Amino acid sequence: MMQPRLEIQGLVRRFGGREVVSDVSLSIAAGQVSCLLGPSGCGKSTTLRLIAGVDMPDEGVIRVDGQPIVEGTTRVPPERRGIGLMFQDFALFPHLTVEQNVGFGLAKAAPDRRARIAELLERVGMSRHAAKHPHELSGGEQQRVALARALAPRPRIMLMDEPFSGLDDRLRDDIRDETLEVLKAEGTAVLLVTHEPTEAMRMADEILLMRDGRIVQAGAPYTIYNNPVDLPAAAFFSDLNVIRGRVQGALTETPFGPFLVPGVPDGTEVDIAIRPQHLKIDFDRAGKGPLSTPTHGEAARGVVERARFMGSESLVEFRMDFDGRVLKAHVPWVFLPKPGTPLWLMFRRDRCFVFPHQPRVA
Ligand SMILES: Nc1ncnc2c1ncn2[C@@H]1O[C@H](COP(=O)(O)OP(=O)(O)OP(=O)(O)O)[C@@H](O)[C@H]1O
After folding, report:
1. 209: Cβ–Cβ under 8 A, 6 or more apart, which residues?
2. Using an 8 Å Cβ cutoff, are 303 and 321 in contact?
3. 0.90 surpassed by complex ipTM
4. For the ABC transporter domain, which residue ranges apply (predicted)?
């Protein structure tokens, strides 16, 4: 296996006795983008600051290309870590031109200085703005310059903290994709912090899901989305429909028929969770629903409470006959049944997640 560019083991940071970063370990290869994803306050920015060297961990090891930058008494100062930073308040130097901003981190006498600046301006599509000042640029253009500036000294690692949150939605998608292209072309190892699942899914080769200072799950976006480690991990990515049941003889009886839950002791309460797009809707036939099938189990009846068109999909909310609770279904494109319409819901057994019930983590 190739040596990781960035490797972290057992990182701990405490503030006033409270552990804000708990035993965080990760590794990122050159050219790989990893996203630290988690709710506000879970310790993402603190982790980034420890790697950047603007804060010191209480425990743990940080290595870059196998060389310790934090280990035992070793503390390599921030400017010698080979790490580029791009934060939300990236502020370009207002009195410098675009070109001068990009060249800021490069030695004046470096022989390839001009070529490097030109190369990066080209790469981020800003060559024709080289002589302008930041106030003459749009937010997106400023962002491109900030990226070029951060990449100019060829950092081995790039740390990005919510770098796109100042941009409006449409622009953000474009800038994200462009940024990704540039970072891949440069072969930098990237650790990006975000609290937005869509941003992580769009950018990351690997998502590191963080909660209460810990990485609770790491994996490719597909894996994290489709094999969440627990209910909060599943709920972080979309609305969830949750049905509670109690296991008896490896089965849980529900209004949608029995669910197989092998290996779970009798009497255990389980949460069966299903994402809204995996609910299947069928019509009411004189008070009867569709026949049960092995893949979808039994149908349960609900009454449409409201339906809304969301653009690429419709969101339909049902009040279920069995317990009066609301379940949410996403249907591709347009499906807008009138409130009060009785319909039947089923869901695919292989698309739902079953977890032992736990009182919600605060
Ligand atoms: N210097 C500090 N002194 C005391 N507590 C701190 C300090 N820095 C951060 N914290 C606390 O550590 C916790 C984690 O903060 P951190 O900024 O890392 O979270 P985050 O996941 O990046 O959140 P956000 O997305 O809101 O920036 C918070 O509860 C914060 O109040």
Report:
1. 37, 38, 215, 216, 217, 218, 224, 229, 233, 236
2. yes
3. yes
4. 6-237
Instruction: Please state the domain count of the chain.
Output: 2
Both 188 and 262 in one domain: the answer is no
**By alpha-carbon position, which residue is closest to atom 20 of ligand 1?**
41
Tell me the backbone φ, ψ of residue 75, rounded to 5 degrees: -140, 95
Which residues surround ligand 1 with Cβ inside 6 Å? 15, 20, 38, 40-46, 195
39 Cα: distance to centroid of ligand 1 (angstroms): 11
pLDDT tens digits along 11-68? 999 999 899 999 999 999 999 999 999 999 999 999 999 999 999 999 999 999 999 9
pLDDT in tens, 267-295: 999 999 999 999 999 999 999 999 999 88
**16 with 38, same domain?**
yes
Which pLDDT does position 185 carry in this prediction?
87
Residues 177 and 31 in one domain: yes
Same domain, 13 and 150: yes
- Of all protein residues, whose CA lies closest to atom 18 belonging to ligand 1? 43
CB-based contact 37:209 (threshold 8 Å): yes
Residue 89: predicted pLDDT: 67
- Ligand 1 centre to CA of 68 (Å) is 25
